[in-house]
Design brief:
Layout: H1 3-6, E1 18-33, E2 38-54, E3 58-62, H2 69-77, E4 84-89, H3 93-102, H4 107-121, H5 128-137, E5 138-141, H6 145-148, H7 155-165, H8 171-184, H9 201-213, E6 219-223, H10 231-248, E7 251-256, H11 259-265, E8 268-273, E9 276-282, H12 283-288, H13 293-301, H14 308-317, H15 349-358, H16 360-365, E10 366-373, E11 376-381, H17 384-394, H18 401-406, E12 407-413, E13 416-421, E14 430-433, E15 436-438
The chain binds adenosine-5'-triphosphate (ATP).
Adenosine-5'-triphosphate binds next to strand 2 and helix 2.
C-alpha cells in the first residue's frame, strides 16, 4: 500500500507536528456460539484504519451508530488492544517517513523495518515508562457522565484521582490543584464535596473534562461528549472545549455521529463506515466538496432538523440499516445503501441473500447456498418454480440497476440457480484534493 492509500497525513495550518499515527489498525471481536462457545465468526468493528492526529488540532471522527467509532477511540487511547496494526505516539518526522515507507514492504520485511519504531513508539510495544507517559498524555471523556463518574465518589476524589495515582499531589496541594481544575471548567471550590448526582448533565460533563485535564494531557478523546445534552448546554460545553484547546494547545479526537457539531469544532474530518475510513479531509473541503456518497448522506441527514421537505428527502438518502459487521459487503461497504452505486461497487452473493430476506415466500423455499467465491455460487430451492421466480426477481426492478448490471450470469437448471457477479476488490482511498482522500469508484 502507498502512503496515500494507507494514511491521512495533513499539512494543516496547525503545524505542531504529528502526535499520534494510527496505522492499519483493526479490532475484530469473536462471535461465539453453542455449549462449547466455539468461535463462529468475527465482528469487524474496526478493519484496517489509518490516520494521523497533529498537536493542537481537532480531528472529527464521524459515522452512524455501529460504524466502529467508539472502538477506534478506545484503540487510539490504548484502552483496548488491536487485533492487528498499531498506534504510534510522538514520532519525529524521519520515523514517520520510515513508518510509511515500511507500509509498502512485503509483510516479513515490514516487521524487521518496523522493529525499532515499534519498540520506541508503538503504544502496544513501547517500554512501560513510555507507555505511562503516553497514558498521561492521552485522556478520554465519554458521552455518559453518569456511568463514567463513580456515583459514590466526591468531586475532589474524582478529579483528584489521576493526580494521586500518578503521585503528582496530595493533601492540601491536591485540594488546591482540584480547585484550579474546577475553575478552568467553570465550576469552583463550592463543588468539591458533592456527589455526581447533585449536578446537571452539563456540569457532570465539566467534571469529566476537569478530570481529563488533571495530568495536563496533549490529547483528549471525546466520545460523543455532548450528545446527551440539551442544545444550549451543548454549545456551552463546545465553547469550553474550544477555550481549553486554545489555552493548552490540546489535540482532540472528537467522536460523533453529528456532522453539524464537527463542522464547528474540527479542523479535519474522518468519515467511517462499517469499520473502514471512507473519506478524510480538511473540514471545509469535506463540507464544500465531499467526495463520498456516505459523507454526503450524513450531511444531508443533519438537515433532518430543518424544513420538513428536506427531512423526508434526506431520510431516503440513508435508508436501511447498517449491514452486519460480521459480514460486511464486499467492494465498497456502502454499496448496499448507496444512491449512486455502480456495477463496479462490489455486488456479491450476500446481496442476493439480503434481497431474499425481503422476499419471505422465496426465502422459505431456499434450501442451500453453495459459494465458489464471494461473487459466484449456486442457490438451491425446494422446487424449479421457486428458482425461476428468484431469477425473475433478480432481473426485475425489485433489485437496483447497478446490481443487475453487475450480475453476469443468472442461470436456472431445475431447482438450482447459478449466479455470477463481476469481481471487485476493496475500494482504496485515493486523493481528491489537498489532504483530501475518498474511497469511491466515482471520480
Ligand atoms: N466488546 C464487543 N464485543 C463484540 N462486539 C462489539 C464489542 N464492542 C463493539 N462491538 C460491535 O462492534 C461494532 C462497532 O461498535 P462501536 O461501538 O465501536 O460503534 P460506534 O460507531 O461507536 O457506535 P455507537 O455510536 O452506537 O457507540 C458494532 O457492531 C458493535 O456491536
Amino acid at each position: 500500500m502507498t502512503r496515500l492509500q494507507s494514511s491521512f497525513t495533513p499539512d494543516a495550518s496547525k503545524d505542531g507536528g504529528t502526535l499520534l499515527s494510527v496505522r492499519d489498525v483493526a479490532k475484530h471481536y469473536p462471535i461465539r456460539s453453542g455449549a462449547l462457545q466455539r468461535v463462529v465468526g468475527q465482528v469487524r468493528a474496526v478493519d484496517g484504519v489509518s490516520f494521523d492526529i497533529r498537536r493542537g488540532e481537532t480531528l472529527g471522527l464521524v459515522g452512524e451508530s455501529g460504524c466502529g467509532k467508539t472502538t477506534l477511540g478506545r484503540l487510539v487511547s490504548g484502552l483496548i488492544a488491536p487485533t492487528s496494526g498499531q498506534t504510534y505516539y510522538d514520532l519525529d518526522s524521519s520515523s514517520l517517513a520510515a513508518l510509511d515507507a515500511a507500509q509498502t514492504l512485503p509483510e516479513a520485511e515490514r516487521h524487521a523495518a518496523l522493529a525499532a519504531i515499534n519498540a520506541a513508539h508503538g503504544i502496544e510495544t513501547m517500554p512501560i515508562e513510555a507507555k505511562n507517559r503516553f497514558r498521561r498524555n492521552c485522556q478520554m471523556v465519554f458521552q455518559d457522565s453518569f456511568s463514567s463518574l463513580n456515583p459514590r465518589h466526591l468531586v475532589i476524589d474524582l478529579v483528584g484521582r489521576p493526580l494521586r495515582v500518578h503521585k503528582e499531589a496530595s493533601g492540601s496541594d491536591l485540594t488546591e490543584r482540584v480547585v484550579e481544575l474546577l475553575e478552568q471548567v467553570g465550576l469552583g471550590r463550592q463543588h468539591l464535596y458533592r456527589y455526581p448526582h447533585q449536578f446537571s448533565g452539563g456540569q457532570r460533563q465539566r467534571i469529566s473534562i476537569a478530570r481529563a485535564l488533571a495530568l495536563d494531557p496533549e490529547l483528549i478523546i471525546l466520545d460523543e461528549p455532548t450528545s446527551a445534552l440539551d442544545v444550549s448546554v451543548q454549545a456551552q460545553i463546545l465553547n469550553l472545549l474550544n477555550d481549553l484547546q486554545a489555552e493548552r494547545n490540546l489535540a482532540y479526537l472528537f467522536v460523533t455521529h453529528d456532522l453539524s457539531v464537527v463542522e464547528h469544532m474540527a479542523d479535519r474530518i474522518v468519515t467511517m463506515y462499517l469499520g473502514k475510513v471512507v473519506e478524510a479531509g480538511p473540514t471545509r473541503s469535506i463540507f464544500d466538496a465531499s467526495a463520498h456518497p456516505y459523507t454526503r448522506a450524513l450531511m444531508a441527514a443533519k438537515l433532518d432538523l430543518g424544513p420538513a421537505g428536506a427531512a423526508s428527502e434526506n431520510k431516503a438518502v440513508l435508508d436501511g440499516a447498517v449491514p452486519d459487521p460480521a459480514r460486511p459487503p464486499r467492494g465498497c461497504r456502502f454499496h448496499t445503501r448507496c444512491p449512486v452505486a455502480t456495477a463496479q461497487c462490489g455486488w456479491e452473493i450476500d446481496d442476493i441473500v439480503r434481497i431474499l430476506e425481503r422476499h419471505e415466500a422465496l426465502c422459505d423455499t431456499l434450501t442451500d447456498v453453495t459459494r465458489e467465491s464471494d461473487f459466484a455460487g449456486t442457490l438451491v430451492f425446494e422446487d424449479a418454480d421457486a428458482a425461476q421466480k428468484m431469477a425473475a426477481v433478480l432481473a426485475s426492478e425489485a433489485v437496483p440497476q447497478p446490481f443487475r448490471d453487475a450480475l453476469e450470469l443468472a442461470e436456472t437448471t431445475g431447482t438450482k440457480l447459478r449466479v455470477r457477479f463481476r469481481q471487485a476488490e476493496d475500494i482504496k482511498l485515493t486523493r481528491r484534493g489537498p489532504d483530501h482522500l475518498a474511497a469511491c469508484v466515482l471520480g
